[in-house]
């Protein structure tokens, strides 16, 4: 029973030639064609003996090597001979030049592909999250006056400090009572509080209750007022206390 196997040991004839050049430690700019052709043909014959499919491009390269070898073995004047039996007259084109040029170019792309493959593997070890759309909140930052503008991240940081201050990690009371507070109602309460105050109100003063539900609803109310541009938040410098005031045009 015949069993045919096809493998892609090399990506093409140039890849095989580079492999042979590296294995034999040959200078790519001074290829001993006779030796490299012999090694190349051994590989081709081995593939045939193993009943592996030999692509036509490998056979074309074998023919090219044999043609170059034939040109370099043509008899020359004795004074023009080199160690491998060939020398070039001044101005005469070396039949290896085109092959060397193709090999050098292929080597550049092969090394670049290997580097990109390494970067792909390194990048595959990283996991990222698509950026969140915070454009609605970004528009709410008020023009800078005498104080620094306050971003959404500053407000979140202030709320975290508030949570730590009230020590919400532990239950305040043993009895849990659910109290639903509409956000719209809490927004109205905050606006009234700010409008009655003649000075800027500390961000923490907007959270008088220790109940977690009340704190969360108050925080959402502040964010919604920021979004509607009904309040403005300022701080004197980075990481300083945040102050809240009602917009003058409200």
pLDDT averaged over residues: 77
Assign the structural class, choosing from mainly alpha, mainly beta, alpha/beta, alpha+beta, or little secondary structure: mainly alpha
Helix content: 40-55%
- Read across the widest sheet, the strand sequence of neighbours is 1-3-4-2
Biggest sheet layout:
4 strands, antiparallel
Radius of gyration, in angstroms, nearest whole number: 39 Å
Q: What fraction of the residues are assigned to beta strands by DSSP?
A: 5-15%
Instruction: Tally the helices.
Output: 8
Spans of at least 5 consecutive residues with low confidence: 1-8, 81-86, 143-147
What shape does the CA trace take?
rod-shaped
Straight-line distance between termini = 91 Å
Please tally the β strands and state the result.
4
> How would you name the oligomeric state of the polypeptide chains in this document?
single chain
* Element order: H for helix, E for strand: HHHHHEHHEHEE
């Amino acid at each position: 029973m015949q069993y045919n196997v096809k493998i892609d040991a090399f990506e093409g004839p140039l890849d095989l030639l580079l492999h042979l050049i590296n294995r034999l430690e040959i200078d790519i700019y001074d290829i001993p064609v006779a030796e490299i052709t012999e090694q190349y043909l051994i590989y081709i014959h081995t593939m045939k003996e193993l009943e592996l499919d030999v692509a036509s491009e490998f056979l074309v390269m074998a023919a090219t090597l044999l043609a170059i070898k034939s040109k370099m073995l043509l008899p020359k004047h004795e004074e023009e001979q080199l160690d491998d039996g060939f020398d070039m007259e001044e101005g005469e084109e070396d039949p290896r030049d085109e092959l060397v040029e193709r090999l050098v170019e292929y080597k550049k792309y092969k090394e670049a592909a290997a580097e990109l493959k390494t970067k792909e593997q390194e990048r595959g070890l990283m996991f990222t999250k698509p950026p969140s759309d915070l454009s609605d909140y970004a528009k709410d930052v008020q023009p800078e006056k005498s104080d620094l503008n306050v971003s959404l991240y500053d407000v979140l940081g202030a709320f975290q400090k508030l949570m730590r201050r009230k020590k919400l990690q532990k239950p305040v009371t043993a009895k849990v009572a659910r109290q639903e507070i509409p956000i719209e109602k809490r927004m109205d309460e905050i606006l009234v509080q700010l409008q009655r105050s003649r000075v800027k109100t500390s961000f923490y003063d907007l959270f008088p209750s220790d109940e977690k539900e009340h704190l969360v609803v108050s925080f959402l109310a502040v964010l919604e007022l920021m979004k509607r541009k009904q309040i403005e938040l300022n701080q004197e410098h980075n990481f300083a206390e945040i102050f809240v005031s009602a917009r003058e045009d409200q």
